[in-house]
Amino acid sequence: MSKLLIQGPSRLKGEVRVHGAKNSTLPLMAASLLCDSTCVLHNCPVLSDVQTSEKILQHLGCHTERSGADVAIDPRGVEQSDIPEYLMREMRSSIVFLGAIISRMGRAELSFPGGCELGPRPIDLHLSALRKMGVEIQEDHGCLKCSAPEGLKGVNIAFSFPSVGATENVLLAACCAQGTTVITNAAREPEICDLAEFLNQCGANILGAGESTIVIEGSKPSWL
């Protein structure tokens, strides 16, 4: 269709159901890995990225079940710490699972989103922040092999620009780190507030979400 023809005036009426935001749903699904019981996320949009996130959780060992717009996630069976390359290729934002897997398993193995490490990478801020927190990262032909042999530690992290994804990954990693993590120049988008609120309801201690400085008090995870 090359053009739209709209004749008016006329009165608009009807109802539209607004689904939850994908940008909030995906990090909350990753955050469910930090829990020790079933989480239920309401009003989840039916989108390919959400379905890919379900596949990732299932590969890791979670039991997931969708009922209408609700997605239930039981993370108690998590045993794997890798994400297959074909799933990483399906969703650019799959890197948000890195911080959660490191927190849960102490290790992670995945490919770069899109499967290519050539040229400038938008995940450099993620990797440098996690390295400061004690994560050892080996990059090998598009694959990231990560481990935290001495556990995660709280540190001060100053981003060169307010990256949403990097802020989310640090939030997920810092919840189970030893000590206090302070993020300066943090992203302030609504999905950051949604993630922090969810984590706080699950027992985390996060202050300042939605502002440029976020403080996370790490605590021993319940599954240890």
Question: Care to give the gist of this entry?
Answer:
The protein has 224 residues and is of the alpha+beta class. It has helices spanning 22-31, 48-60, 85-90, 97-105, 124-132, 164-174, 190-201, and strands spanning 39-41, 63-67, 70-74, 107-111, 136-140, 143-147, 156-158, 180-184, 205-207, 213-217. Residues 115-119 have low confidence and may be disordered.
Structure description:
The protein is of the alpha+beta class and 224 residues long. It has one domain: UDP-n-acetylglucosamine1-carboxyvinyl-transferase, Chain (Alpha-beta prism). Helices cover 31% and strands 20% of the residues. The protein contains seven helices and ten strands. The strands form three sheets. It has a four-stranded mixed beta sheet, with helices on one face. Strand 5 and strand 6 form a beta hairpin. Helix 4 (97-105) runs parallel beside helix 6. The longest helix has 13 residues, at 48-60. It is globular and about 65 Å long. It starts with 21 loop residues before the first helix and ends in a 7-residue tail after the last strand.
